[in-house]
Amino acid sequence: MSAQIKTGQIETVQVNLAERSYSIHVGSGLINTAGDYIAPYLKEARTIIVTDSNVEKHWLAPLQNSLNSHGISSEAIVMEPGEKTKNFTNLEQLVCKLLNAQIERNTVVIALGGGVIGDLTGMAAAIILRGIDFIQIPTSLLSQVDSSVGGKTGINTPQGKNLAGAFHQPKLVLCDTDALKTLPIRELRAGYAELVKYGLIADAPFFDWLEKNGERVLAGDQDAQRHAIVKSCQAKADVVSEDERETGRRALLNFGHTFGHALEAEVGYSGTLLHGEAVAIGSVMALSISERIGICPAGRADRLRAHFAKTNIGYNLHGNAGTDWAAEKLLDHMRLDKKVADAKLVFILARDIGDAFITNEVNDSDILATLNEALEQSGN
Amino acid sequence: MSAQIKTGQIETVQVNLAERSYSIHVGSGLINTAGDYIAPYLKEARTIIVTDSNVEKHWLAPLQNSLNSHGISSEAIVMEPGEKTKNFTNLEQLVCKLLNAQIERNTVVIALGGGVIGDLTGMAAAIILRGIDFIQIPTSLLSQVDSSVGGKTGINTPQGKNLAGAFHQPKLVLCDTDALKTLPIRELRAGYAELVKYGLIADAPFFDWLEKNGERVLAGDQDAQRHAIVKSCQAKADVVSEDERETGRRALLNFGHTFGHALEAEVGYSGTLLHGEAVAIGSVMALSISERIGICPAGRADRLRAHFAKTNIGYNLHGNAGTDWAAEKLLDHMRLDKKVADAKLVFILARDIGDAFITNEVNDSDILATLNEALEQSGN
Predict the structure, then answer these.
(1) Would you call B75 helix, strand, or coil by DSSP?
(2) What is the largest CA-CA distance in chain A?
(3) Residue A29 carries which DSSP code?
(4) What is the rounded distance in angstroms from the CA atom of residue B117 to the CA atom of residue B125?
(5) Which residues in chain A have Cβ-Cβ distances shorter than 8 Å to B162?
(6) Å from A167 to nearest chain B CA?
(7) CB–CB of B130 and A340 under 8 A?
(8) Residues of chain B neighbouring A96 (CB-CB closer than 8 A)
(9) What CATH number does the domain located at A186-377 have?
(10) For residues A160 and B26, what is the distance between their CA atoms, to the nearest angstrom?
(11) Phi/psi at A159 (nearest 5 deg)?
């Protein structure tokens, strides 16, 4: 469904969605030369960049300089960093700031930042004038391999994560591995959990590769990073091309997420637990419940735990002063998560590493037992 | 592009948009028997109704009774009436109320009310869980012939009208002419201006029919109302089927709206001027500027003024204590309106009654002269 083109140090993944198709370029130096890639997509010699105050420090000037060298003027809107920014208040503020910048239907907006900036900017672009074009320059590993592929945009509400949003595909994505150099190690590790997810879902050889090369990815080896990002984007692009609006197979990408979102909801998207950290814990739980039900051979959850231990990825629920984890409360959060269909919880389980499937036939007792086991192992 | 099916006192207009196609039923008694029509579209035996406190009084109980008789439970969310409700704050509140009602992807929401309720509920449905189904029961003449056809949803921002929104088609529309009996006469007249618009754009015989029968429509003759609503929905459905996302021909439907939106923006959507009232004034201006430029024979604006005078539709800018109309300020509002492309204002002009076209080649001097002429005639 999607082709992979190698061009020197830059590799390209094509997301095939008819008239909404777009390219994801992956490699080093993309922000410094962003104007080369972006210029053909603009219908006027200006753009508006949305970023956050962390990313601004490192990457706004290089991006604007490259755009300037192509005669493209740009203004920047700088949001607060962090998951808390993904709410209605900031969506309204961003929409108003973009409108005050005399945005028109032809104006293209650039999202420069991690998943929060991408999701929020994408949703603003989806609703402003009922939809304008946007380009994503994801600067975190998580956003490079996850939220930049597939057009899911959205915000959180008090009821849960991403409960309001839109499907709105970007016109172009630039994944610059240089940006990972300025990313805090905690965020790099959190993003790594999503790389692992693609191996767990449908690509056992990629999981094997990560077992051998994961430490290189985390240590900043740009060739290893580019390969891992391309493999992940490719995997996601293949699924999204088949099922853009998640009526079926796309739900596989939620491996580890039913558990993970419940954990995030419980801590109130407070930064106590990053999304990728929640996915790491949730992925172990997904294998663990698969073993418990008897559909997955024993030892698979332990193999994942061993890989996470080797790469310094946390997979336990941390004993946290502010959070009194309780299995029943986590189950309540799952019920409110948007993946609920007809009040039955949808889970992504696995027959083995690299062989995930979708089911809504999981008993509450197995969910609670899995959660309680995880809580006991974490010393809660 | 769309078929018109007569079934006794109920007529049906089909909006053809591939997998997003839907039916608009028009006639008397539709709310009292709504369950018959709605039941086939529900995937669970419950629904959530969004309405406003004016419509609630007359039509919520009949709707709920009919749903009950089909075993469908429903809960109602009641919003404040009026254009001011169409903002980000109320969108957020509505989304949260719907989520608190344990909404799921399969839940269908019903919008029972005028354009404000339809636009706000439609946008909430577009973004909740990235899109759920909704059914529209428009209760004002304006919403029956305009906002219920074509899937444009949205809210206003301080910068202007409908500047944030989504294209989200309803699954079904029920236009009950009984609802027009409980509509204030001022709102009936405002909606009538949109009927006239369809004649002005592309259907001179329909304009002739309105010249003969318009007073019957406004006096509550349900056969005349049904015919006028069906003709209008049909006209809009034909345009929308060709150009769902307004990249071309759909812009014709904005006849009278470039002027009209500027007037509404100036009074701040305060209720001083209803949307249809603004469109009536704007339609006269659109013919007037067409005559001024020399593309339309003289006398057409006067013919429209005569029809509006006969049917008691205001077409002058009222001298309003709180509003100091000024042509330059109105032009500024137009520039911020979303129909601006590359900073050139898009106007819908007419070669004659029933022969409108789209252009962005109107000089500021002609716009200002037309506005000033209208201001002088209104005694401002």
Answers:
(1) strand
(2) 62
(3) T
(4) 12
(5) 130
(6) 7
(7) no
(8) 157-159
(9) 1.20.1090.10
(10) 39
(11) -80, -15
A329 sits in the region (left: phi over 0; alpha: psi -120 to 50; else beta) called alpha
Which residue among B156, B231, B254, B307 is the active-site one? B254
Backbone angles phi, psi at B17, to 5 degrees: -140, 55
Which residue of chain B is at minimal alpha-carbon distance from A168? B130
pLDDT tens per residue, range A163-199: 999 999 999 999 999 999 999 999 999 999 999 999 9
CATH fold, domain A4-182, is: Rossmann fold (3.40.50)
The answer to whether residue B257 is catalytic is yes
How many other CB atoms are there within 10 angstroms of residue B70's CB atom? 14
Among A14, A62, A75, A69, which residue's Cα sits nearest to residue A179? A62
Taking the C-alpha atoms of residue A300 and residue B247, their distance in angstroms, rounded to an integer, is 52
- Could you tell me which residues are beta bridge partners of residue A166? A153
Q: At B321, is the pLDDT very low, low, confident or very high (cuts 50, 70, 90)? A: very low
Between A49-63, A70-84, A230-244, B165-179, the lowest mean confidence (pLDDT) is in A230-244
A166 with B96: Cβ contact below 8 A:
no
Q: What is the ipTM of this complex?
A: 0.87
Residue A216 CB neighbour total at 10 angstroms: 16
Query: Under a CB-based contact definition with an 8 Å cutoff, are residues A106 and A179 in contact?
Result: no
| Helix, coil or strand: residue A174 | strand
Q: Any catalytic annotation for residue B261?
A: yes
- How far apart are the CA of A341 and the nearest CA of chain B, in angstroms? 6
Q: Say if CB A121 and CB A134 are below 8 A apart.
A: yes
Q: Residue A130 and residue B341: Cβ atoms within 8 Å?
A: no
Q: What does the DSSP 8-state code read for residue A144?
A: I
How do the domains of chain B map onto residue ranges? 4-182, 186-377
Among B95, B130, B165, the residue with its CB nearest the CB of A130 is B165
Tokens of A89: 């208040």
DSSP state of A341: B
Distance between CA B263 and CA A222 in Å, rounded? Answer: 57
Q: 3-class DSSP state for residue B353?
A: coil
Q: In chain A, whose CA is at the least distance from the CA of B151? A: A130
Residues 6+ apart with CB under 8 A from B365: none
Dist. CA B296–CA B291, nearest whole Å: 5
- Cα–Cα dist A155/A117, whole Å: 10
Q: Count CA within 13 A, CB hemisphere, residue B190.
A: 19
**Each residue of A81-113: pLDDT tens digit?**
988 899 999 999 999 999 999 898 899 999 999
The whole-angstrom distance between residue A330's C-alpha and the CA centroid of its chain comes to: 22
User: How far apart are the two ends of chain A, measured CA to CA in Å?
Assistant: 45
Contacts of B154 in chain A (CB under 8 A): 130
pLDDT in tens, B300-318: 999 999 999 999 999 987 6
**pTM (2 d.p.):** 0.89
The letter for the amino acid at A258 is T
- Tell me which residues of A are annotated as active site: 130, 152, 194, 236, 246, 250, 254, 257, 261, 275
**Which residues of chain A are within 8 Å of residue B167 when distances are taken between CB atoms?**
130-131
Min Cα–Cα distance to chain B from A248, Å: 13
| H helix or E strand, kind and range, residue B155 | strand B152-157
| Amino acid of residue B260 | G
Closest chain A residue to the Cα of B340, Cα to Cα:
A104
Is residue B168 among the annotated active site residues? no
CA atoms of B90 and B103, how far apart (whole Å): 18
Give CA A161 to chain center in angstroms. 13
Catalytic-role residue among B246, B266, B277, B291:
B246
A chain contacts of residue B100, beta-carbon cutoff 8 Å? 159
In terms of CA atoms, which chain B residue is nearest residue A335?
Answer: B102
Task: Report the residue count for chain B.
Answer: 380
The reply to whether B333 belongs to the active site is no
How many Cβ contacts (< 8 angstroms) between chains A and B? 106
